[in-house]
Design goal:
single chain; Immunoglobulin-like; Purple Acid Phosphatase, chain A, domain 2; seven-stranded mixed beta sheet; globular; disordered N terminus; binds fe (iii) ion; binds calcium ion
Length: about 525
Amino acid sequence: MQRRDLFLHLTRFAAALAWQQVFSAGAHAQSQADEAWASEDDPFSLGVASGEPLPDAIVLWTRLAPRPLQADGGMPQAAVPVHWEVAADARFTQVVRQGVVVAEPAVAHSVHVLVEGLAPGRTYHYRFEAGGQRSPVGRTRTAPDPAEPVRQLRMALASCQHYEHGYFTSHREIAASDVDLVLFVGDYIYTTQAPHHIKVRSHAIEMDPHPGGRTLADYRIHHASYKLDDDLRACHAAHPWLMVWDDHEVMSDYTGDTAPGVDDQRAFIAARAAAYKAYFEHMPVSPRRVPFEASMPMQGRYRWGQLADLWTLDTRQHRDAALCSEWPRALMHGKLLWRCDAIQGDQRTFLGRQQEDWLAAGLAGSDANWRFVVQTTQLAPWPIRSPLGPLTYAEGWDAFPAARARMMEAIAQPRVQDVVFLGGDVHRHVAANLRLDPLDRTSPIIASEVVTTSVTSKGMSEVANAWVRAGNPDVLHMRSDQRGHVMLDVTPREVRCVYRGTPHPVRPQSKLRTQATYVIERGKPGLKKA
Ligand code: FE
Ligand code: CA
């Protein structure tokens, strides 16, 4: 533990140094930057985005890429100045903040501007200018004052958007909706190819399935190709996002420092470093998250007035390695475990002990009306009763029972009430009650869980869905046949959860409908059908 902590501190320190070097190199380069650099192609092809709202600050993102599917984005190997401005109105007659930042080739000419000195609870408009061209206008919002008795918070919860499995209709709908925040809980890109019979469109490039064959350029081009989707860009431009990642941003089913079926661990770590770097370069995340080699600090805490505290968790980077990965203990490429007793180990961790302790302390000290734990996957157990006997999903909390028990213990404290878990990953809409001892029907219900289906990624079969539902009666709702997202309306009295969906696959003209509505009343853990 101590060695690991020391290592973490050293990596943070090194990351800070690396960032400073980027900045000082930037300052130097700025004086040399070709002020006359101009682009005939639109350098803002990947759009604009914002994220991580605080009461007085917001992060703005863009990346200059006039030829987005080229390894260098069509940019020169030189620093380019980017002018940014934030206004109180959409016409930019009242500019409240502006500045110049340098887009560096070392970070693919991406910029992450932390704009400070803003007013709490306000809508702002922002745009960039570079190479004689202006970006589209983005809209964003700061968090309210932490002491303000906020009456309403509206959030969209989304995850899992395999580009080849369907169209991003959810993003089109969310972009047009009046939400304060978009919570994206992982699988933003997929580096796997869809089988031919379910493919509705194609990735710009094929990623090598082996980590040794993947380069930073591959990950950059892949990210850029996702951002070329009109609906995804519109959703980023419309609202601030909070980001959580899962496995597919790097490689299917990876856990911490390892990935299933990968013998060359050094090659995997190198691929993880490239994936994290490309992720940083394409997401509206704080500049303090700049990765150093294969590490990137992802967890976060946010507050929406007195109404809500939110924690965004990293369940991948610090997770213990998968167990029982050999046949016959592992089935379906290691996704399902059969008779694997080793997962019961009480030291096993899903979040890393540091993040666990940080979350427990934060929850215990929170005085908000609601506590939202925003993480990747489903916390509620889903034991699979198959004809072979019980199977366990290797990728989720079920394969880390001791870590889940510690989590439940942390939220069972008398001060820690009105906890709602928000997740994704499992490609199905889920509403579930969470008990202190998750599989003991006599144990008290202490929290609620809302899991969103995928934006596009294919779900389980109805047969598998039935096996899973039978295993846990506290799962009130579970449907894997539709793609979509969840809208959450939070007031001091209740959280209203509207599950939106459309049949698989999502077609260009698909429309979403409400599949189900559940309500969580404050002071009464658990969900009720509305
Ligand atoms: Fe997924
Ligand atoms: Ca996943």
